[in-house]
Design brief:
single chain; 353 residues; alpha/beta; CBS-domain; Spore Coat Polysaccharide Biosynthesis Protein SpsA, Chain A; seven-stranded mixed β-sheet; three-stranded mixed β-sheet; 10 helices; 25% helix; 28% strand; globular; Nucleotidyltransferase family protein; CBS domain; Mannose-1P_guanyltransferase; NTP_transferase_dom; Nucleotide-diphossugar_trans
Length: 353
């Protein structure tokens, strides 16, 4: 039984944001919703929250709107073997333990699931940009090699993928490529297998896919901009893509924009409604993708193309391009303000090792 299961208890009127903090901060990756007498009323997982975000729910909405009202539970006294068999049959990683009155007594986890499997799926890190908005820092250094904390951004990304079980790494280079290739070499010092593709001329955000070697594994590929700092769960991202048989999956980030004026709508010269300083919500591209082999092979060698254009082409073919909303920490280090923020954030994110 987990020693910290009490840390994942939450009330129905707590916010979705509160549940997110529990899921992100605790290793159990689940929140148990209880009433005043500690009776189980629901369970919230990462997937429940993502579905709520896609349904346009605010993170300040009550968690009761996204919780699973009929979760799988085990009775106190069930054997470890029975519980493990139940979790494996239901494909779940954790299961609440309840008494006859449905009061939460504990939480059992599938121990083997805590050890991440090794993935053969390739990872493609885009590190060829000029980083002009970060000059003069990038006058003599490619942006992915700028240090955040004590390590280059690209090394932090590499370590994140290695921790998640991905070690088949490809890196796209263009601007000052030798600084990247000399630093990482073949990746063996990190326990990775690193290969490089070099853009002689910039090919857009998707064009480098056409330079990947022919012997790349015929598996979904995770593609990511080399200047993004994030704690997104790459294993869950890949599982989402595979389970939905997607051609491509784009990570998206919620972005709120408040109009600084009262918005007036009308018909002719008659006012029909007025809203004072409304907030509009959008999903924006987070620069992280999963691409199936068919999408990768559709990019010809030395063909200039941006990712949005490439994905739009495949949307027209099968309409099977999906979005994966991320609520984890995410920062695009594109401007000096972002770079300075990253320098302070890195010490609180647990990403230094």
């Amino acid at each position: 039984m987990s020693y910290c299961w009490n840390n994942v208890l939450i009330k129905p009127d707590n916010s979705i944001r509160d549940a997110l903090e529990i899921i992100n901060n605790e290793a159990l990756r689940v929140a148990l919703v209880i009433d005043a007498n500690q009776h189980l009323v629901g369970v919230v997982t990462d997937g429940d929250i993502r579905r709520g975000i896609l349904s346009d729910l605010s993170l300040e909405a009550p968690v009761s709107l996204v919780m699973n009202l009929s979760p799988t539970v085990a009775k106190v006294g069930a054997t470890r073997k029975e519980i493990v068999e139940l979790m494996e049959r239901k494909s779940i990683l954790a299961i609440p333990l309840v008494d006859d009155e449905r009061k939460v007594i504990g939480l059992e986890t599938l121990h083997s699931a805590l050890h991440r499997p090794k993935h053969q799926n390739p990872v493609f890190l885009m590190a060829g940009g000029f980083g002009t908005r970060l000059r003069p820092l990038t006058d003599n250094c490619p942006k992915p090699m700028l240090k955040v904390g004590e390590k280059p951004i690209l090394e932090t990304l590499l370590n994140q993928f290695l921790k998640a079980g991905f070690n088949n790494i490809y890196i796209s280079t263009h601007y000052m490529p030798e600084q990247i290739t000399d630093y990482f070499g073949d990746g063996s010092a990190w326990g990775a297998n690193i290969r490089y593709v070099h853009e002689e001329t910039p090919l857009g955000t998707g064009g480098a896919l056409g330079l990947l070697p022919e012997d790349i594994p015929e598996l979904p590929l995770i593609m990511m901009n080399g200047d993004v700092l994030t704690k997104v769960d790459f294993q869950r991202l890949l599982e989402f893509h595979v389970n939905h048989d997607a051609d491509a999956t784009m990570c998206v980030r919620e972005y709120d924009y408040q109009i600084p004026y009262g918005v007036v709508k009308g018909e002719g010269n008659r006012i029909t409604s007025m809203v004072e300083k409304p907030t509009q919500r959008f999903f924006v591209n987070a620069g992280i993708y999963v691409l199936s082999p068919s999408v990768i092979h559709s990019v010809q060698k030395n063909h200039i193309i941006d990712m949005p254009t490439l994905l739009e082409q495949h949307m027209c073919e099968r309409n099977n391009v999906l979005m994966f909303p991320i609520h984890e920490y995410w920062l695009d280090i594109g401007r000096m303000d972002d770079f300075n923020k990253a320098q302070s954030d890195i010490y609180t994110l647990g990403m230094l090792s």
